[in-house]
């Protein structure tokens, strides 16, 4: 019996080197498999296009594929808000049209026939990204979404945004609706020079409706003061952000950026260090 046990023990000992070798090979192949995955994750975190601008001088501080036209989702609403602020009185009453109720996407749940002030709709537009607010304001200003979109293209050209094409006031996917990171930076820089626009996009909470701003950067980045988030499946995650430190106002644009907040913080930090 003792002899049998000794033979079994000896057999097990002879197996140990093979087990150890197999374990080492497993670790090595695991590491080899993980490294490409890590590289892929880093690549996925990159934005399709980026641009950073100093507002006062209109000097570009950073560019990456800044002239490539891309969909921009709800960052479209930056130009919508600027036009409305320049052309309408904040206290004007807006009657909500049928098409606003059917806008789809993000909404503040407006209903046909309701009346709201321009001011209220602008907060719904920029804090909660209400597509129904965008349509209501567009129809109020120009009579139809189509006519307002034509006006947006005129404004974009006047602001130096030469490679943009607007087809709606909200940014939902539509053929030929797109901009570039550079154009969006120029539009946003002009918007941030409008005092009321800046008050709205820097607002963290809108108590009358209990609205909280969707722009998380306002809550955790020093000097953050705007401006707008955006997302559709086609456009990916988009963020136009503004921050001011020591009197210096910087605007950052990232389009199709999976880690848009992290990337924006990096770009703003780099800009303020220049």
Explain how this protein is built.
There is one protein chain. The protein is of the alpha+beta class. The chain has one domain: Beta-lactamase. 48% of the residues lie in helices and 18% in strands. The protein has ten helices and nine strands. It has helices spanning 2-44, 77-87, 98-101, 118-127, 131-142, 145-158, 181-192, 195-201, 217-220, 260-273; strands spanning 49-54, 59-64, 93-95, 115-117, 205-206, 211-212, 224-232, 236-245, 248-255. The strands form three sheets. It has a five-stranded antiparallel sheet, sandwiched between helices. A hairpin with a 4-residue loop joins strand 1 (49-54) and strand 2 (59-64). Helix 2 runs antiparallel to helix 4, helix 2 (77-87) runs parallel beside helix 7 and helix 4 (118-127) runs antiparallel to helix 5. Residues 1-8, 16-29 and 31-44 have low confidence and may be disordered.
Question: What descriptive keywords fit this protein?
Answer:
274 residues, two-stranded antiparallel sheet, 9 strands
What is the CATH homology-level superfamily?
DD-peptidase/beta-lactamase superfamily
Helix-strand sequence: HEEHEHEHHHHHEEHEEEH
Q: Share of helix among residues?
A: 40-55%
Number of E strands: 9
Name the beta content range. 15-25%
The helix count comes to 10
CATH class: Alpha Beta
Could you tell me the CATH topology label. Answer: Beta-lactamase
Described by the principal axes of the CA atoms, the overall outline is globular
Secondary structure category: alpha+beta
- Residue stretches low in confidence (pLDDT < 50, at least 5 long) are 1-8, 16-29, 31-44
